[in-house]
Design brief:
Strand content: under 5%
Number of strands: 0
Order of helices and strands: HHH
Length: 74
């Protein structure tokens, strides 16, 4: 589902919506995928460094802010 969201955000750009809001959606969707990748590393890697959990939350909240701010630019 998250990959589909990222593909649809790129398709918005490709069909001609070239606003700053679409750029924020693309960045937010990409960071959301990165956040889930970090989260899977935190859950399934046995000796995961402690800072990875904080990094996951940081990337997650930045992605959510990008997606939420995109509404004001569309």
């Amino acid at each position: 589902l998250i990959s589909f969201m990222f593909i649809k955000s790129i398709s918005l750009y490709l069909i001609g919506f070239n606003s700053f809001g679409v750029f924020l959606v693309i960045i937010g969707a990409f960071l959301f995928i990165v956040s889930d990748l970090i989260l899977s590393f935190v859950y399934f890697y046995r000796d995961c460094p402690k800072f990875m959990a904080g990094l996951n939350l940081l990337v997650y909240y930045i992605s959510q802010c990008c997606i939420a701010l995109s509404i004001s630019y569309m």
